[in-house]
Each structure stands twice: as C-alpha cells, then as structure tokens.
Write a structure and sequence with these properties.
The strands form four sheets. Strands 1, 4, 5, 6, 7, 8, 10 and 12 form an eight-stranded mixed beta sheet that branches. This protein has a three-stranded parallel beta sheet with strand order 9-11-13. Helix content is about 35%, strand content about 30%. It is of the alpha/beta class. The termini are far apart. Helix 1 (about 10-20) runs antiparallel to helix 2 (about 25-45) and helix 2 crosses helix 3 (about 80-90). The structure holds 1-O-pyrophosphono-5-O-phosphono-alpha-D-ribofuranose and uracil. 1-O-pyrophosphono-5-O-phosphono-alpha-D-ribofuranose binds near residues 103, 133, 135, 136 and 166.
C-alpha cells in the first residue's frame, strides 16, 4: 500500500490550480496556502482517536466525545512549511509547534540542517510535518530522521505537491509514515524542481527572489 493519499476534494483541486498559476501574487498565494492547510487538516485528522468525557449541557449530564489536541505537534520544515502552520492551528488550536530548518543545496539538491527545536514531550505526540513540496524527497527524509531520533513514532506529512521520484525515495526509507497531498506530479526538471509544480514555494510565499 502506498504511503501517499491524494486529496481530490474539488475545493482543494481548485485552490491548487490558483497556486500553480504564475499570475498568483504572494499575498494571494499565502492566503490560499492557509485555506488549503485548513481543508487538509480536516482530512489528516480523520482517524484521530476520540475519548469520552463527562459534560453537562444546559439540560442534562451526558458523555460526549473529544479529540485531545494536546497530543499533536505541528512541525513545519522552514521556510516554506511555515505557510501551512496557521491553517492547521485553526483546526487543532491546542497543538504545539516545533521547527526544523532545512534548505536544499542548489547544486547537490541535498538538504542542509540549520535549526531544530521541538516541544519537550515530542516523542509522545503525533507529528504533522508541513512541507509544501516533496521534490527529491531529501528534506522529508531528513526531517523524519531527526524526529525518529527523538523517539517520535507517529508521523504524518502535509504537502501541496509531490513528485513521483521523491515519493519513491521517502517510501524506501520511511514506509511507516503517511503523506497527504493535493497535487501529484510525475517528474523533476534538471534543476530538481517539480514539473509542472508551482515553482519555488518559499520564494512565492515570502516574495523573495
Ligand atoms: C524547498 C521546499 C522543500 C524542499 C523540497 O526548500 O520548501 O523544503 O525544497 O525539495 P526536496 O524534496 O528535493 O528536498 P528550499 O531549499 O527552497 O528552502 P526554503 O523553504 O527555505 O525556500
Ligand atoms: N522546492 C520548491 O519550492 N519547489 C520545487 O519544485 C522543488 C523544491
């Protein structure tokens, strides 16, 4: 079974088309990434376990179900993953946020680590990594390695667009994680960019370059 779930909801597909268009400006790009993250978080949390607690309505006592948001950590891969954090927090407001700083060496395309800061109890949490692009898969593999080294067992990744070679690479090393995506493209160009993709997610989010 594949580690990837492609989300085909019409609103997600519609919003991804807006993101892919080169005519979408940074301000709109940021807003749409947040909207997509909200909709994706709904799907990513679909199988979260529920527990029953006792409450009192204005009419009577009852047992009712809750998801404990305290068991989740959102971990954006800097920089571009930051764009999805606020959207996930809208759905899971009690989640803690850790950060992994990685950038791709433009020549070797391998990830370089420059920051790692996690909540103290990270090993007890379900981690949702936010990483808009899975190109070679190197960044996701490196982030998952770092988290597993800290004892994290349950890892889900939210992407906007993945490429087949990247997914194959991640699957070979980490077959136990789940990746959710809206777009699933076939290939990379000679500079390691997803084709057709949406360009450089970090630059488009933050208006750099
Ligand atoms: C980009 C993107 C991913 C990574 C994906 O990061 O945001 O983190 O490349 O590529 P991979 O699957 O081949 O590892 P970039 O180096 O551009 O850093 P940025 O997020 O700071 O812009
Ligand atoms: N990083 C991006 O932002 N876009 C790509 O297509 C590949 C890596």
């Amino acid at each position: 079974m594949s580690i990837v779930t492609q989300l085909d909801h019409p609103m997600l597909q519609h919003k991804l088309t807006l993101l892919r268009s080169k005519d979408t400006c940074s301000k709109d790009f940021r807003n749409i990434v947040k909207e997509i993250a909200i909709l994706m978080a709904y799907e990513v949390t679909r199988n979260f376990p529920l527990e029953e607690i006792e409450i009192e309505t204005p009419i009577a006592k009852m047992k009712s179900k809750i998801v404990s948001g305290k068991t989740v950590a959102i971990v954006p891969i800097l920089r571009a993953g930051l764009g999805m954090v606020d959207g996930v927090l809208e759905v899971i407001p009690a989640a803690k946020v850790g950060h992994v700083g990685l950038y791709r060496n433009e020549e070797t395309l391998t990830p370089v680590e420059y920051y790692f800061k996690m909540p103290k109890d990270i090993e007890q949490r379900t981690v949702i990594i936010t990483e808009p692009m899975c190109a070679t898969g190197g960044s996701i593999i490196a982030a998952v390695n770092l988290l597993k080294n800290r004892g994290v067992k349950n890892i889900k990744v939210m992407c906007l667009v993945v490429a087949e070679p990247g997914i194959k690479a991640v699957e070979a090393v980490h077959p136990d994680i789940e990746i959710f995506t809206v777009g699933y493209d076939k290939e990379l160009n000679e500079r390691g960019y997803i084709t057709p993709g949406l360009g450089d997610a970090g630059d488009r989010l933050f208006g750099t370059k």
